[in-house]
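User: Sequence recovery, please. Input:
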């Protein structure tokens, strides 16, 4: 399987243009951070476009990091890869003693690499274990949530994290069914959801339920908030934060963060309205259809020793790096 089959970078031209402004503002070699490296598509493009730059690529999924390492081998030491959750970025940057990055990219959501592998448990179309962990070090799986959470908590999860309007009948059906047999496989859950809501439109009936489970398993809301805060701590003055989201709730979080930061004089918003993929891109990569990009420039940098002081506690405290 080729790299392009593993992952097609979403809105790549827009990402390069937005982050490129931070490179033009400095005369010295610069560092980008790709905090959701995936298979390395965005990072490869940045390294090709900006020959004086290096990229620190991080991801919590060790399997996809192996793919990225192979893809980025031609760039040698200009591509540095570390295993790290987004929330661990400030500590990792202190540990590595790197200069403040001039650009930070977050592409939030599930990758094709994860969706297309049944053993990962993300797909409602391919049978696999009901897992959904991006980081296999996490203890809680999707099966744990489905089989242990009470009916009201499941309904709230499906509604608030997935936007599923029929969350309550779905949750009720799950609780009734699991009394006889716990849910262990993805297709079993997907079939039950379809029985409850029926087929409506092109989207699979279980799409929103699976999205909500994935977000809960990987604590995606918390990770996004932590990543935004990390950008405020770590980026150099004039550095660009670029965030790609695929969920209206996530886009709202990013919008508020950048807007509130602009009011405080900490950020300059580059995208008053989110950028969206072109029709041509959606035709060539249907998974890009819900993507939205927001970007902002760091007006000032907080002096918290991100690229300087390095304590013993910081060295040993990050188990994910």
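Assistant: Recovered sequence (321 residues):
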């Amino acid at each position: 399987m080729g790299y392009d089959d593993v992952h097609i970078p979403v809105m790549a031209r827009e990402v390069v243009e937005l982050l490129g402004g931070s490179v033009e503002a400095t005369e010295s070699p610069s560092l980008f951070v790709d905090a959701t490296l995936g298979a390395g598509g965005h990072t490869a493009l940045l390294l090709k476009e900006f020959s004086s730059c290096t990229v620190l690529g991080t991801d919590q999924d060790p399997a996809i990091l192996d793919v990225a390492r192979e893809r980025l081998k031609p760039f040698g030491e200009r591509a540095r890869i570390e295993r790290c959750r987004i929330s661990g970025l400030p500590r990792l940057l202190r540990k590595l003693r790197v200069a403040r990055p001039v650009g930070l990219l977050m592409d939030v959501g599930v990758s094709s690499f994860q969706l297309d592998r049944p053993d990962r448990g993300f797909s409602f179309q391919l049978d696999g274990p009901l897992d959904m962990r991006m980081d296999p070090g996490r203890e809680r799986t999707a099966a744990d949530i489905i089989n242990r959470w009470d009916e009201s908590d499941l309904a709230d999860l499906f509604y608030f994290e997935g936007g599923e309007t029929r969350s309550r009948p779905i949750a009720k059906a799950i609780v009734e069914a699991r009394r006889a047999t716990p849910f262990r496989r993805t297709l079993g859950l997907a079939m039950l959801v379809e029985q409850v809501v029926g087929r409506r439109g092109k989207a699979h009936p279980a799409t929103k339920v699976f999205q909500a489970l994935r977000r809960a398993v990987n604590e995606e809301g918390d990770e996004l908030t932590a990543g935004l805060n990390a950008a405020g701590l770590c980026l150099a003055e004039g550095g660009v934060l670029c965030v790609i989201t695929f969920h209206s709730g996530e886009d709202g979080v990013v919008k508020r963060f950048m807007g509130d930061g602009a009011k405080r004089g900490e950020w300059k918003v580059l995208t008053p309205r989110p950028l969206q993929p072109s029709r041509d891109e959606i035709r060539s990569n249907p998974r890009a259809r819900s993507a939205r990009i927001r970007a902002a420039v760091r007006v000032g940098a907080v002096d918290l020793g991100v690229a300087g002081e390095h304590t013993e506690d910081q060295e040993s405290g990050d188990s994910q790096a």
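The domain at 3-113+220-316 is CATH 3.40.50.150 (Rossmann fold).
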